[in-house]
Amino acid sequence: MKILENYSLKNHNTLAVDCYCDQFAEIKSLSDLEALPKDIKITEMLIMGCGSNILFTENLSRFVVQFKPRKHITIVDNLVVAWAGTPWNDLVNWAVNKNLGGIENLALIPGLVGAAPFQNIGAYGTELQDSLVWVEVYNWQTGLYHRLSNEECLFSYRHSIFKYHDQPWIISRIGLDLRNDKPVNISYQPLQEKFAGQSKNPSFKKVAQAVTEIRQSKLPDPYKIPNAGSFFKNPVIDSQVAQRIQRRHKDLPIFETKHCEGQKTSAAWLLEQCGFKGHREGDAGFYDKHALILVNHGNASGQDLLKMTKMAKRAVKIKFGIVLEEEVRVL
Ligand SMILES: Cc1cc2nc3c(=O)[nH]c(=O)nc-3n(C[C@H](O)[C@H](O)[C@H](O)COP(=O)(O)OP(=O)(O)OC[C@H]3O[C@@H](n4cnc5c(N)ncnc54)[C@H](O)[C@@H]3O)c2cc1C
Fold first, then answer.
1. How far is the CA of 131 from the centre of ligand 1 (A)?
2. What angle (nearest 5°) sits at the alpha carbon of residue 275, between those of residues 269 and 281?
3. pLDDT tens digits, 181-203
4. What stretch of H or E contains 246?
5. How many domains does the chain have?
């Protein structure tokens, strides 16, 4: 394993922010993991997949390890086991081509398998936690592997135990329960529209294709327009807050979800009401077709982008009394 010093991460994050780290190493296999120095403190390490959920705001005094994309998927004891470096969408395609269901609604989410449990990725009414059985972690300080069950991962909406950052853990593999008899979930409005007048039970592959088409029509390709997907989480609000806002804004979107208590509203809608859809200052801005997506139009620095997100947060707090929480990890 080669360790590079003073390395630029500009080509390693989808917001294309230029930032340097003290040391950088690429992980291709378990033996690379096991070769990592054991004396690195938790605060001095950063583990990365494709950098599609990170905003760098300053140079990092850290040892950055990044998984090199490499597909490795097997079936063991009826579970689908994927290596952390497997591109997430390759896993979805692999599964639907084998008529195995459970993650088809998560098609086209950028990034690698190892990052998926970190924020319990979710889309179109499905979350990773619905199919995940275990997560294997490598403890770089002890050199031991450990398996966490679904319950031990403490999953909730875009959250997991891995966000606490108080363990020297690198996610190395995940085990998923994907089966051909799982029910498809096309309850989300855009999917219902896609399948209107068609079979009520489309194949997993058809659902993944529909999700892919919807996403391609709505979201900017991060490799053409640098972005990190939804910048903020959809806020969970109680019914009193919802009623207070609805007195002045009857069209406030409200959706119930099985994945969290309370009602969720749309962060994109809140930002749009505050005028952030398409808003741009220099090279930092929000996408003109989707207010929740922070974009780098060229050479925005991490600080430019951070300033834009702080402005947006402040505006939503003042207008609606709701505090938006970042979905993207800000470093
Ligand atoms: C256009 C676009 C659309 C998106 N849509 C969605 C969506 O619909 N739903 C959704 O949930 N997300 C979405 N995202 C966010 C992002 O794709 C996911 O969070 C993805 O899982 C990040 O993968 P990554 O490999 O890029 O991780 P990175 O951004 O590199 O890392 C994300 C976090 O995971 C940690 N991490 C990464 N790998 C490991 C590992 N092996 N062990 C321990 N920790 C690790 C990192 O330290 C970091 O904190 C979107 C992003 C973009 C750009």
1. 18
2. 125
3. 999 999 988 999 999 888 778 99
4. helix 239-248
5. 2
Residue 208 in any domain: the answer is no
**244 belongs to a structural domain:** yes
Distance 280 CA to ligand 1 centre (A): 25
Is pTM beyond 0.90? Reply is yes
Asked if residue 61 is part of any domain, the answer here is yes
What is the SS3 string spanning 84-149? CCCEHHHHHHHHHHCCCECCHHHCCCCCEHHHCCCCCCEECCEEHHHCEEEEEEEECCCCEEEEEE
* Residue nearest (by alpha carbon) to ligand 1 atom 51: 229
In this prediction, residue 240 has a pLDDT band, given cuts at 50, 70 and 90, of: confident
Tell me, what CATH number does 41's domain have?
A: 3.30.43.10
Task: Tell me how far the alpha carbon of residue 279 is from its chain's centroid.
Answer: 23
327: annotated active-site residue: yes
Ligand 1 geometric centre to CA of 241 (Å) = 30
Q: Which residue's CA lies nearest to atom 34 of ligand 1?
A: 115
Domain that holds residue 258: 227-330
Measured from the Cα of 53, ligand 1's closest atom is 29
Q: Is residue 295 part of a domain?
A: yes
Instruction: Give the closest residue to 301 by CA, choosing from 16, 6, 13.
Output: 16
Task: Tell how far the Cα of 228 is from the centroid of ligand 1, in angstroms.
Answer: 9
Q: Give yes or no: 187 in active site.
A: no
Which among 52, 158, 160, 173 is annotated as catalytic? 158
Angstrom distance (rounded) from CA 185 to CA 259: 14
Ligand 1 probe mutation, 24, 53, 217, most atoms within 8 A of CB: 53
The secondary structure element, H or E, covering residue 272 is helix 267-273
